[in-house]
Amino acid sequence: MKQRIKRLDKNKPSRSLTKIIIIKVLPVIAFLVAGFLLVPYGSMYFKTIRCH
Questions:
Q1: How far apart are the C-alpha atoms of 46 and 38, rounded to whole Å?
Q2: Which H/E stretch holds residue 36?
Q3: pTM
């Protein structure tokens, strides 16, 4: 039983670390992807406003 408890204790920090990484990194990646997808449309929209 002691060995199992030790194994669980060792796994907990790595799991919480991956959760922290996912929580911090995924939004950044999502914003970057959204930015790359939306910037061309935004620039086209502003170009059409300036031309007219």
A1: 12
A2: helix 2-51
A3: 0.48
- DSSP-assigned letter for residue 1: -
CA–CA distance, 27 with 30 (Å, rounded to integer): 5
Report which residue type is found at 29: I
Cβ burial 30-39 (10 Å sphere, 16+ → b, else e):
eeeeeeeeee
DSSP helix/strand/coil, 52: coil
**Cβ of 9: how many Cβ atoms within 10 Å?**
9
Residue with token string 């199992």: 4
For residue range 2-31, what is the model confidence (pLDDT) as tens digits? 555 555 555 556 678 889 888 999 999 999
